[in-house]
Amino acid sequence: MHEVWSRVREGRHVVVVGTLPPLPETQPGEPRWAVVRVGCDGAWSTWGPLEDARRRIEALLGEQSPRWDEALDRMGTSARFLGDLPEPTIEATLVGAANRLAERFEGRAALVIESLDEADEATVQALRDILERAGWMRLPLVLGLGQVPEHGPLAELLGRIEGDPVAAGPKAEPTGFDWSSLRPELLLVMRAAAVVGRSFEAELVARLLGVSADAVLMRLQQAADLGAPLADHGGGRFFIPEAAQRALVQRVLPSLVERWHRRLGEILAEPPRPVDADVDEPRAPDPASYEEASGSEGPGSGGGAGASEAGETSETREAGETREASETGETGETEGPDGADEADEADQAGGADGGGEVAEGSEPPSPPVGTLGHARPSAEPVTATYDEILEPAGEDRLSAKPADEPAVDEPAVDEPAASEPEHDAAETMRLDPEEVERLLSPRAAADGARDQARAAHHLSEAGLPERAVEQYLAALRK
Q1: Residue 212 burial (CB < 10 Å; 0-12/13-18/19+)?
Q2: Angle of helix 465-477 relative to helix 447-461, nearest 10 degrees?
Q3: Where are the domains of the chain?
């Protein structure tokens, strides 16, 4: 067994210089090893490797995030927002999950943090705080790096680990990739992604090119199949190495790079819709919709009650339509031919139901909050789209732009006259656990500022320093 894993079996932390040795082979009948690996050479973010490690450990243990459990308890959520409960630190949440992993896989578990010499300062400081408390982290840490620094925060961190660093094999140098081997549509997507940065979102690249996110994701998948150095961090976020990003941008025309930077600055500078922390509870479904669709009764109602409620709802709707017609004026009797009257009635019905087409001159419905498409459309229309390049014949289904996607007709829901029934919190909350964690995170408030800082960077690259300064100042105010 390699010296690294011998120290891990003893419960000791270890520093590895070079490439980490492979795990020891498990003999039949022996318990398996549980090793969680995270890297610091990916997309940069504060505490990013530690947050990734915590999520991976919880997934290995079959646990869900403690913040998701807290979100299901409205009293706990209110106390957290009002400041009655302290916010758990990243160190505490990571150590808690790591110690549970160490207890389950005693002597055969470790947390491997690779490329530590490329970690952000907050990650290094958090690890230093963890190691300062002797015996707090019971899960052995395996810290990998290219070379041992002589001074600085990282040197102080490594100095708190007992034992000399273990010299392993030399760090493998990444081999170059021939980008010219990609088809034009794949190369176009990769070049646009490289202009966004080393870390990019598929939806942002799709908005830059004026195509659907599905088209971009399919091209990224094809590029990865051909060996392109592309890492998927989940949630539509990707990462490419710095050398690959530099090689891609160097082959793009400067005028096109400037145009793309300007467009990215406009997209990221668009003000998002305000996010409401309250959970919207769904209204009770209209019993009449069940009878119209399948002839069955609404849930939780008897046959007679359902029929009576449907009748009352129908009468209420007819009375409301009569009042709307009287308030808007008798246009149906005096204006235009019968065809125009029918068109006006169809437009009114579509507006009431929420599923019709958007009238000319009105704003289209906004995409859901939490996606890159939630911002309002830019004042300057996109003059160039790349769907013809990205989507050859036979793949038209992927070329639909987000604005051209057909609207989904939703049944009209009438507000009941009586008070709405109360719902249990566990039944009404339908938020994604990652989205709840994002809302509860103290970094959620900085999302808008981060987008504006990114917008300022792209506007500066596009040769618009005054607009870049405006975005920087707006980000600082936030």
Answers
A1: buried
A2: 170
A3: 3-167, 181-274
Tokens of 115: 């490329």
Its CATH architecture, for the domain 3-167, is 3-Layer(aba) Sandwich (3.40)
Q: Fold for 181-274, please state it.
A: Arc Repressor Mutant, subunit A (1.10.10)
Rounded Cα–Cα distance for residues 49 and 431 (Å): 25
Query: How would you write the pLDDT of the chain (478 residues) with one tens digit per residue?
Result: 578 888 888 889 999 888 777 777 777 878 888 889 888 876 666 778 898 889 889 888 886 555 545 454 444 555 555 555 566 788 899 999 999 999 999 888 999 998 888 888 889 999 999 999 888 999 999 998 888 888 888 888 888 888 778 877 655 555 578 898 999 999 999 999 999 988 889 999 999 999 999 999 999 999 999 999 888 877 788 888 888 888 999 999 999 999 999 999 899 888 765 544 444 444 455 555 444 444 544 444 444 444 444 444 445 555 555 555 444 444 444 444 444 454 454 444 444 444 444 455 555 555 444 444 444 444 444 444 565 555 544 344 344 444 444 444 544 545 545 444 444 444 434 445 454 444 444 444 456 667 777 787 888 877 788 887 887 787 777 6
- pTM given for the model: 0.45
- Residue 380 CA to residue 6 CA, distance in Å, equals 62
Which amino acid is present at 425?
Answer: A
- Residues shown for the chain: 478
Angle between the N-to-C axes of helices 202-209 and 254-269, in degrees from 0 to 180, rounded to the nearest 10: 120
